[in-house]
Design goal:
Blueprint: H1 4-7, E1 11-14, E2 18-20, H2 22-36, E3 41-45, E4 49-51, H3 54-70, E5 74-80, H4 82-90, E6 95-99
Helix pairs in contact: 2-3, 3-4
């Protein structure tokens, strides 16, 4: 019988909406830190958000991404705009990201 501690998996999804201005980035950053401490995978769905500071957002994802990776988990960003994809591509952070242009269109 497998050890139950090794078969559990907890995923949290954060889905900010609207402009990610400085106060919103502060809130998202704090939420990422909290959920990274208690989950195995965090999905940040940016399809409803406007990323106004891609470099700042990429920087704020570093610590939670490293924390998750060290624990055997991951940080996944869905719907990343081109600027954020570029910033994440420059960094050596363990963030997996899918561009918004690569997502299938939802049926109308």
């Amino acid at each position: 019988m497998a050890d139950l501690g090794q078969t559990r998996w907890l995923t949290a999804v954060l889905r900010p909406a609207g402009a990610l201005d400085q106060p919103a980035l502060n809130r998202l950053s704090a939420a990422l830190g909290h959920v990274a401490a208690s989950t195995d995978m965090v999905i940040v769905d940016l399809t409803a958000a406007e990323v106004t500071a891609p470099r700042t957002l990429a920087h704020r994802m570093r610590a939670p991404a490293r924390q998750l990776q060290q624990a055997g988990g991951c940080l996944l960003v869905v719907g990343a705009p081109p600027g954020l994809m570029a910033e994440l591509g420059r960094a050596t952070d363990p963030v997996a990201a899918f561009a918004s242009s690569s997502l299938p269109l939802a049926p109308a």
